[in-house]
Amino acid sequence: MSFLRFFTVMLGMLATSAEAAEVNLQSPVTSIARDIYGLHTLLLIITGTIALVVFGVMFYAIIRHRKAAGRTAKLFHENTTVEVIWTVVPFLILVGMAWPATRTVLAQKSTRGEDMTIKVTGYQWKWRYDYLDDNFGFVSHLATPQSAIQGVSAKPVNYLLEVDEPLVVPTGKKVRLLLTANDVIHSWWMPALGVKQDAIPGFVRDTWFKVDTPGTYRGQCSELCGKDHGYMPIVVIAKSPADYDKWLADKKKAVAAMADDPNKIWKLEDLKARGEKVYQQNCVPCHQATGKGIPGSFPALDGSKIVTTDKAAHIHIVLNGSQKNPAMAAWGKQLSDTDIAAVITYERNAWSNHTGDVIQPKDVKAARGGKV
Fold first, then answer.
1. What is the pTM for the complete model shown?
2. Residue 6 region, left (φ>0) first, then alpha (ψ -120 to 50), else beta?
3. Rounded CA gap, 117 and 208, in Å?
């Protein structure tokens, strides 16, 4: 196969939209994503053509004017016409590339005229979505089971790209995202929507999208944010306005129904059952399902003095975290009083820990207020 034929075939493969997703961008479903896709294709054609011309001339000159063919090198000084051409032509090419690129970047940054605003907060390793216009929110965790990650069971179709709580938005509405992070830098990346924005602790960045077609779209955190960086997927479900309104009403009811009474007195077994779920969602990456931790990186909870002795110290470190090496995230802003009470109770009564201690939500509430 000639070089020209090979290049033509490769360019055709990269230009295909839906069928060749493995070698190209995801199929765009927003105006910005379509602009990015078109810009990508345009620049690929321009740079490919330049490469073809430059290398074609170079290889022709090398082969046609080689010494073995009896050619003799000639000396020459300068040629003003040639110098003007190789200055002006690249300049015009760069302007032609910069114009659509600048237009696309400016459109990406224009978040005015939004129909709804959602705050996105990155945590190691999950996302929280707060619907600011409707005053509710939830946390989105990786839903791929640990058994599949560890190779014990078969991998699901959307391995490492499935969550328990997807971000749901209506089609045809401009959605503004306000992004920040609670611990380290994350990056909210959704290729089909044309969105990639860093979430930086202490800063609020914004971006937007407007989905045209109902469907499920998948992305990931694209910033190296820690050892489980690859376990931080993003799922966006776009629904028609009518279906979205129904989902919103049902979700508000569900959130209200799940709100716990902080003064409720729980039984040990009930707290352990709930705490195990909280532990699996939030604590397994560092401390492992066995509670043995990762030697040299994260401490074991099985047999730990903090877990088996002082209850107040245990509550304090879960609520406020620790900056010691290794650092521990502060879960007070991420979990409710009931969830924190449940996970602490579970840790104090799991594995070889059999303290019999029961931490009630009111104990956590008191610790938040500095009363213990």
1. 0.74
2. alpha
3. 9
